[in-house]
């Protein structure tokens, strides 16, 4: 069956229906990874978005329950040049087409993804709708324009867990550490990496108060990735401020943006974001370049941070956007990219060990300081 992707500016891309039949709308973004499509689909950070894969052949190794990052796909729709109709991998449990249909994910194939990505790179990420055969193209454009913009949109509360749960028992050969992880849309492999670093995890909903977190007597607090605009999340930011100085804090992606806001900084929306497994980042501490996996459409403004309180630790080599920060007085740091490497390289696994080191050192401090942070 024929299908069409209509963008809010009136540009249309034809193709063929794949996955579930129907209509899907969201912010259209692209990911440059060559593999990892199942991790991408199930990453809660893609809530509210239609994902375009730049690699031309998607689905050739099928789908398996071992590669999911959450309980279900969160992407609103999926776009590729060609979806494979066979799975050439011994781990495959079902074809990608069947997987998408089973989860109700509308997809479109045989799209000129090179032209689509060039269009987004020139004009920026924009809203779009995938419609099936017989859909009125002009009506699809009108529907695309009616979709809420990502700027100013709080999506973390729509993907967070309903109640706290435990994960991992820590590595048996390492001294156990208790960590509370805020779920703003947390990826499963982040929990796996924290557990491998010796952490016993309690995952809590995004709205959990700082007082309830501290009542669990954690050795540290983790701030997860997640979807949407960070600035509307005023309650999570206030909770982070109340935690700073009272326990070590480590944030990834949305957690990094919320940390920047808690430090008194500001965030802004990128033109088309960073999404892929090959983003070069310079570690400003040692000058090394890390190849990183990324998925974000917002960034922390480095000029909005107080240089006397906050140290910049990582920068993106493609566009010089801020990729990491660390507070100078309290044990708190964060990175914009995904060091859990799923999918992606392993260059940044050391950050989980850094979090562990901070927690062990903080245990020895008799009277931690409690600085005051205000929004600039």
Description:
- It contains ten helices and 19 strands.
- The chain is α/β, with parallel strands linked by helices.
- The protein has two domains: 2-146, Carbamoyl-phosphate synthase small subunit, N-terminal domain (Glucose Oxidase, domain 1), CATH 3.50.30; 156-363, Rossmann fold (3-Layer(aba) Sandwich), CATH 3.40.50.
- The strands form three sheets. It has a ten-stranded mixed β-sheet with strand order 10-12-11-13-14-19-18-17-15-16, with helices on both faces. A seven-stranded mixed β-barrel has the order 1-2-8-6-4-3-9.
- Helix 8 (234-243) packs across helix 9.
- The longest helix is centred in the last third of the chain and has 14 residues, at 350-363.
- It is globular and about 70 Å long.
Put the structure in a nutshell.
The chain is of the alpha/beta class and 376 residues long. The chain has two domains: 2-146, Carbamoyl-phosphate synthase small subunit, N-terminal domain (Glucose Oxidase, domain 1), CATH 3.50.30; 156-363, 3-Layer(aba) Sandwich (Rossmann fold).
- Number of self-contained structural domains: 2
End-to-end span in angstroms? 53 Å
Shape: globular
Strand content: 25-35%
**SSE order in H/E notation?**
EEEHEEEEHEHEHHEEHEHEHEHEEEEEH
Gyration radius, to the nearest Å?
21 Å
């Amino acid at each position: 069956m024929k299908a069409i992707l209509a963008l809010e500016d009136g540009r249309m891309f034809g193709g063929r229906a794949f996955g579930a039949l129907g209509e899907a709308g969201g912010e259209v973004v692209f990911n440059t990874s060559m593999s990892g499509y199942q991790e991408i689909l199930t990453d809660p950070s893609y809530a509210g978005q239609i994902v375009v894969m730049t690699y031309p052949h998607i689905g050739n190794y099928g789908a398996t329950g071992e590669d999911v990052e959450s309980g279900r796909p969160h992407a609103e729709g999926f776009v590729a040049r060609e979806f494979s109709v066979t799975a050439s991998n011994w781990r495959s449990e079902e074809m990608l087409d069947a997987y998408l249909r089973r989860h109700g994910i509308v997809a479109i194939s045989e799209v000129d993804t090179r032209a689509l990505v060039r269009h987004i790179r020139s004009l920026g990420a924009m809203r779009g709708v995938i419609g099936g055969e017989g859909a009125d193209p002009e009506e699809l454009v009108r529907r695309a324009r009616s979709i809420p913009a990502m700027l100013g949109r709080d999506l973390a509360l729509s993907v967070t867990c309903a109640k706290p749960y435990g994960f991992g028992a820590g590595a048996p050969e390492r001294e156990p550490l208790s960590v509370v992880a805020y779920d703003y849309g947390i990826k499963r492999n982040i929990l796996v990496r924290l557990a491998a670093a010796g952490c016993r995890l309690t995952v809590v909903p995004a709205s959990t108060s700082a007082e309830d977190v501290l009542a669990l007597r954690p050795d540290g607090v983790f701030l997860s990735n997640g979807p949407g605009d960070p600035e509307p999340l005023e309650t999570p930011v206030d909770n982070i401020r109340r935690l700073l100085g009272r326990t070590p804090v480590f944030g990834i992606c949305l957690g990094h943006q919320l940390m920047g806001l808690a430090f008194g900084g500001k965030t802004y929306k990128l033109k088309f974001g960073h999404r892929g497994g090959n983003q070069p980042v310079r570690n400003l501490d040692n000058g090394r370049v890390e190849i990183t996996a990324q998925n974000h459409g917002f960034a922390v403004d480095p000029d909005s941070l107080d240089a006397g309180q906050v140290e910049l630790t990582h920068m993106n080599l493609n566009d010089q956007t801020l990729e990491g920060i660390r507070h100078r007085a309290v044990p708190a740091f964060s990175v914009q990219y995904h060091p859990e490497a799923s999918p992606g390289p392993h260059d940044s696994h050391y950050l989980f060990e850094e979090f562990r080191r901070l927690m062990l050192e903080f245990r020895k401090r008799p009277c931690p300081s409690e600085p005051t942070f205000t929004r600039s």
